Amino acid sequence: MARNVQLIQRLVVATVLLSTAATTTAGCRQSPPPPPKAAAIDPDPFERARVAMDRREYGIAVELLRQALARRPADLGTHYRLGVSASYLDHNDEARSEFEWVVAHGAPGAPEVQLARNWLESRNTGSRAALPSQSAAPPASVGEEPSPRNPEMASLVGRAVGHDGVKARLQLFLKSVPGTPGKNEYHILRTDQQGNYRFAEVVPGEYVLTDAIAGPPTWRLRVSLAKGDHLVLDLSSANQTTIRDDFPEARP
Question: Does 7 map to a domain?
Fold first, then answer.
């Protein structure tokens, strides 16, 4: 009887040992748990849009800025940049909507608000800054003095030609220099298919002539206009910002 008890005890101990060994072996054969997946990086569409604007890729910028607005619908800078990008693409309805939002929600003294207001005012009926296509009169050729509407005003004409040729449909901005007699003057137009441009009926004063209000410009020149002036100024590789920048303090 005692021998049977001892035999049973040995069998129990052996079973426990075998079970423990099997568990240990199985545990050693198991693959280690996979490392946690790295969180996907979602670049901010606003920052990507800023890069696109710097590269003058306004179609890409518009799409990215729309995405950014879906995330931050009340961000003034995003609305403003979307308006700028849309205006470069001649999406004037979208540009108007964005600039109206900026004026309605931004601080009155903010630069974005002032520029947005100027753009909107330039689109009013009868504005001197209306695009050539909105005017009943055909544009004059460069160097040709149009019939003066007001001898108290001035005009600026020229042609835009870069390293890659004629700059057709290039958007140009003529904005008065702060603190000068022509304050709050702001004109926008696009060159024609030959790169010609004409700012007519301009209040005499000191102006910045540039092709960009967001991102690095190709041209940024100071223009002085006196009463009755008809100034001819061509934009070329000789007066690009890499050679001449009349407002270097404005660099981003």
Answer: no
Residue 230 C-alpha from the chain's centroid: 33
Mark which of 104, 122, 140 sits at the end of a domain: 122
In whole angstroms, give the CA distance from residue 48 to residue 132.
33
Stated pTM of the model: 0.51
Place of tokens 């934009």: 235
- pLDDT of 17-56, one tens digit each? 445 555 455 445 555 666 655 444 557 898 898 888 877 7
Task: Look up residue 10 and give its two tokens.
Answer: 């040995």
Which of residues 94, 122, 150 is at a domain's end?
122
**Same domain, yes or no, for 149 and 115?**
no
* pLDDT tens per residue across span 187-224: 999 999 889 999 998 999 999 999 998 788 999 999 99
For 137-144, the CB contacts below 8 A with 24+ separation are 139/192, 139/196, 139/198, 140/198, 141/196, 142/196, 142/198, 142/232, 142/234, 143/232
Residue 17 within any structural domain of the chain: no
